[in-house]
Structures are given as structure tokens and as C-alpha cells.
Amino acid sequence: MNQQWYQEDRSDVLIVGAGPTGLVLACDLARRGVSALVVERSPELFRGSRGKGVQPRTLEVFDDLGVVEEVLRGGGRAPMGMTWQGGVRAGEYRMFEDVEPTEDAPYTGPWLLPQWRTQRILLDRLRAWGGDVVFGVELTGLTQDAESVTATLIPAGGGSPVSVRAGYAVAADGGRSTVRRLAGIKMTGERVDPAPMLVADVVIPTLDRGNWHIFPPAEGGTGFAALCPLPHTREFQFVAQPAPVGGEVTAEEVRSLVAKFTHIPAEEITEVLWASDFTVNAALADRFRDGRVFLAGDAAHIHSPAGGQGLNTSVQDAYNLGWKLAAVLRDGAPEALLDTYEEERLPNAAAMLGLSTRIHRGEERRGAATRQLGLDQRDSSLTREIRAGLAEGALTAGDRAPDGKRDGLRLFDLYRGPHFTLLAVDTPLPEQLPTLPGLRTARTGAYEAYGRGLYLVRPDGYIAWAGPGGDALEASAADLRAWASRFAQPARAGV
């Protein structure tokens, strides 16, 4: 193991886990100049396809991080579903509702991308920003005081423990989180389905890749299976329920399950690249913060895979936390800003758990809610709307800031990067601007998706504040300047 990783006395942030959650957070911090030590117990990146559905809102996050083109190249749309009965094709159906891209919402989905490829893209991006991951390192202890956290780390294969310090620690280490246990945070939840499931990546050269193959139970029977072709690979993701749970799943057990649930003989599965079994639970951490320790991703919420919400909600946990940590560590924002991470993300995760459970039980279909573009921060203490008389359905503070192109300006290009943006729509910009580090401003003509007014867009793409322009412009701007002080303290005179 490279011994250089622990020689610095202190990092800004310790991130435990190099899954999508930890990598997105590390990328977001790296582009903001925040030093993060990312440690991962495994010797390499996760090699399975598990979280393969990337929702439109997550594609927007990837756009902001500058990796969406690679994500789009490496993935593909969900193919037509094909049901089978008794080894005979029984009929086609759309797995997901067809949604066309629009000016304000250019990405549709879910976009199928094996999780291993998502993580490789993110790690490459992190390294391009000067960051990296230390593999083969396990967390065994964690304490904190008023100024920092101290972690005990040990090489996963054995060796002498090392003590490292950081300003904050983030648990991105999955549903069995060591960080969560050491922080003493409990989870509350339920068993969603008594029947265990298996997911595996397999190679079946004889099976066509033009369909997502579904194998419902025979009449009067139980259980089901599915084989989804993974774009730009030789692989299918195989899902089966029920499946044996406990111990390491062998390749022969996977072949036997394929043969049991489908018409495909075991010998036609030429490779089993990865496999995992699990029980379907839904559980939520009682809190997402304990002092200088934060929970994100599966460390904070576990759920059914139905609806493809897990990886996406986890990415957005990291996206919410990253800019807030940077604001406190680099821009002088009040420490209280970090309290809004739990305030905003815990209710969102609770709603996601409910949605995933209902979809799993057949009580709700996949639809607009699973695409996550309608998620908002309207109830957040960071949100302020001062326009009166808005029409029903109008864009308001707390909503996701839509894309669009006006006067030669693409809004997502304007928002991309670690900054706040003040957008004036069909009104001038105020003469006195709020004091926010790196604030970007723009003015555009009328755009129906927004409506006339001023919009302060947060670094994570939500509208923090909205107010009227026109005759009320200067009064509106004064309110904005006062409101913006919660995000970063004004510079002192002479500094």
C-alpha cells in the first residue's frame, strides 16, 4: 500500500466509501478546492452492474460535473420488454413510459449504465481534478471533538493502524455502514418482501440483446426472473426472486437459477462475472448528521431496487452536501448551513423509500416521480419566495431550475460549476449584487418556463430565492442581499 496517503496531518473531509455517493462527493469537493481523503475497503472499484438506471435528474448532476457525455456514450435507453411463457415469446411491452426531451428538461430516462461504468467515469473525473481513492483501507475507529474527527484506518489485508484527522467525515460506505455504527446512529425500517433476491452479471451469447427479457411465474406458480442487456457490453443483468441467501453466491448457483426460472440451459451461461443476494428491506437512518459526521447514500437509506431510485438518491445526497461543506470550509459560510443537509435530504429519502416500496408491491407504477425532476426544496429554510400572486404550477423558489436556451445562452451552461447564479428573466439585473463568492450573473429575455423575475440558483441547481423585477427590482435586490448572507459571510473591509 502507498504510504503517502496518510502523511498529511489533516484533510478537510474524510469520505469512507468509493461508490457513486463517495465519488460524486469527492468530485464536487475537488472542483471547489476542498481536500478530501477517500478510502475504500475493497481493493478496486465495485465491479457489478447493480444500480444500472440513471434518472434524468441525476443526468443533470452529471452534466454539471462535466461527465454527462461519457455517461450518454457508455449507456443506452431501456430496450423493449419481452415476456416469456414456457420458452415462447408471449408479448412485448414498454418497460418505462416514453418521454421526449424538452427545452427545459433535455434528459429523459432512465438511462441504462452499469454501475461499474458509472464509477469508472466518476473516478476518472476525480483524478482529472487532482483527487484519488485509497483502496484496500478499512475504517475501524472514529471519534470527534469540536474541531475535527479522528479516524483509525488499517490496511484491509492486515497491517499497522494509522490515525488520520479531518474536519468532517462522510459515511458513503453502504447499507452496513461502519461509520454509521461507530457514530451510534440507528436505522428504522421494515421488511418489504419476505422472498430474497439475487442479482448477477452474466454472459449468454445465444440470447438476443434487443429485448429486456421477463420471465413471470407460470400459472399458479411463484417467483420471477429478468435478463436485461447492459449497453455496450457482452453482459446481461440477471435478477431472480426467490433466491438463496447466505454465504458467497457461486457461478454454478447462478447458472442453476437461470435454468430454473427461464428456458435457457445452464451451459449457455458462458460467464458469471459478479453476483450478490439480498433481502428487500426499507430503512431510514434516524438522523443524517452527528456533529462532524454525515451519512449519505445507502448508509442513510436502504430500500427496494424497484423504480431505480437508490443510486440516484445517493448521488443527490452527495450533490447536496458537497457545496455546503465547501461553503463552510472555503467561503466562510456559517456552520449552521450544514444543518440543512439533514433538513433537506432526510424527508426526500423518506419519500423515496415510500415510493420504492409501493412500486415493489405493485401499488404504484413507475412514472414522473421516479424521474426525480419534480423534487423540490420549497420547504427548506434556505428557500425564499417573495413574489405574490403566482399562478398555479408556476416555477417558484425551491424548484429545480429548468434548462433552456435564450438569447444565445444555454442555462445549464450558465449554471455548470461550483457557484451561485443570479438570473434576471425579462428584467434588468440589480445594480447592487449579493455578496456570494464567484457569483455568476446573466440576463435573458422572456422565457415561459421561468416567468419574469430574479432567480438565485444554488450550486446544486435549485432556486434558493426568487423575487420580482420591474418597478420592484431594487427592493427585491435588497431582500436578496440580506437573504444571501446565510450562504457566505461578506468579506471584511480591507481583506
TrEMBL record:
Necessary cofactors: FAD
SUPFAM superfamilies membership: FAD/NAD(P)-binding domain (SSF51905)
Domain FAD-binding residues, every copy: 11-353
InterPro entries assigned to the protein according to its UniProt record, in alphabetical order: FAD-bd, FAD/NAD-bd_sf, RIFMO-like
One Gene Ontology term of the molecular function aspect: monooxygenase activity
Keywords attached to this entry: FAD, Flavoprotein, Monooxygenase, Oxidoreductase
Protein name: FAD-dependent monooxygenase
Organism: Streptomyces flavotricini
